[in-house]
Write a structure and sequence with these properties.
This protein is mostly helical and 286 residues long. The protein has 13 helices and no strands. The protein has helices spanning 3-29, 50-59, 61-74, 79-99, 107-124, 132-143, 157-165, 169-175, 179-194, 199-211, 217-240, 247-263, 268-284. Helix 1 crosses helix 13, helix 3 (61-74) runs parallel beside helix 5 (107-124) and helix 7 (157-165) crosses helix 11.
């Protein structure tokens, strides 16, 4: 690879990493988000702040860039690529935890966006017409490969919830090609835009569409099946009223937030998928 091609490759990988970080920044700054960190406060999270989430997002840029570069170097979905980005992700998580002094800010986003950045880089080698559906399919193929080098760990919150409630969690979402994003998040984002809703309202509606559908393991862990049912029912009701762009929708969202805060039910899994949705929306428009 000559110097010019190497420089162009680096530039493209850096660009994809910036798109991923921008998506994380857009997600955390979107306001209002019920029981989640936004510009009003920390929602139901006592250990998180907007400033901490922003620092965490910025710390992940080298990781995303390295994942994109690994994809271009490998050129195809393979066990070797899966394990390369797995190690890059673990290294990136260590950097994140150092930046946040041990607080888990973006572990779920590292998984989802890491796969999507990798898949986008692979997809760009085949076509200039990037499609979210194709990216998600490639990401699913990667996610279905097991990483033989994952170290022994104590049971995660997601694994605990999977055993107790049978919820698939982030891993299954990825292995299935992110169906909640493809069938609910992205379509709602674009449908709200098509109705000439402001961008903030379109993004809130996208969040709500996924809240109404996803078995969010964060909510299940924090508030059980009751919290999940209240989240899904409340989010669906806001959308039935016309979404966040309507006065009635805004009031219903306020009541939903009060309910979720009372239950300590923060939809962190949906927040990760919103960032992934915004990333796919951005790269599909390139």
């Amino acid at each position: 690879m000559n110097a010019f091609v190497q420089n162009q490759t680096r530039h493209y990988c850096s660009f994809l990493a910036e798109c991923a970080v921008d998506a994380l920044m857009d997600e955390v700054n979107l306001t209002p988000k019920p029981a989640l960190v936004d510009r009003r406060g920390n929602g139901a999270h006592h250990d998180l702040t907007l400033e901490l989430m922003e620092r965490s997002a910025q710390s992940l840029k080298p990781m995303f860039e390295a994942m994109a570069l690994a994809a271009l170097e490998q050129g195809t979905v393979s066990q070797r690529l899966r394990e390369a980005i797995g190690q890059i992700g673990r290294d990136g998580e260590a950097v994140m935890l150092t930046e946040t002094q041990g607080v888990n800010t973006h572990r779920g986003a590292i998984w989802a966006l890491g796969l999507l950045v990798t898949a986008t880089a692979l997809n760009s080698q085949k076509t200039r017409n990037i499609k979210a559906s194709e990216i998600c399919q490639i990401a699913a193929e990667i996610a279905c490969l097991e990483d033989r080098f994952i170290p022994e760990q104590t049971e995660s919150h997601g694994q605990f919830v999977q055993k107790k409630y049978g919820a698939g969690g982030a891993k299954l979402q990825a292995q299935q090609g992110f169906p909640v994003i493809m069938h609910f998040g992205l379509p709602q984002l674009r449908a709200s835009r098509a109705q000439y809703h402001p961008e903030v309202a379109a993004r809130v509606d996208s969040l709500l569409a996924m809240m109404a559908t996803l078995k969010d393991t964060c909510v299940l862990y924090r508030s059980g099946e009751l919290g999940l049912k209240r989240m899904q029912k409340g989010a669906k009701y806001v959308l039935e009223l016309g979404g966040y762009a309507t006065d009635t929708g805004k009031r219903a969202l306020q009541f939903l937030e009060i309910d979720l805060m009372r239950l300590n039910a923060s939809p962190g899994g949906v927040a990760d998928l919103l960032a992934a949705t915004l990333f796919l929306d951005r790269v599909e428009q390139l």
